[in-house]
Amino acid sequence: MAEHDLTLRMIPSLDRQLVFPLLEFLSSRDVYKAEDILKAKVDLLSHTGMVDYTGELYKQLHNVDTLPAEFEQKREQVIKQLLDSEQQTKHIREVIENPEVAGSLRQDKLQNLKLLRDNYQCTPEMVLELYNFGQL
To answer: Is residue 1 very low, low, confident or very high in pLDDT (cuts 50, 70, 90)?
Structure first.
């Protein structure tokens, strides 16, 4: 059945958040060996901030109880980055979490930027930082 599966051709064109559900689906279908799917998950997630989950998958894959030191280092780095980004985006998050402001936002990106800049002192750089925060 694996010879008819198009997943391997599609994966290079997809974002990580789209690949993971495909791997989950494949693991439930027994199309590929469970170890291969697990290795693909670890490889995929090792480039994300999902350090704890990746560590659990790593333990399963390598049949170990402890993780290499780089997992703890990466975990500390991700937490620091998350806390820093959370602090940097505090103002814009408070603004857009306001139901009044959220109701004022439209599909027009330029209009939204103008509204946020003129009424709430939110700069395009703050919007970009918020986007980056969402990617963590």
So the answer is: low
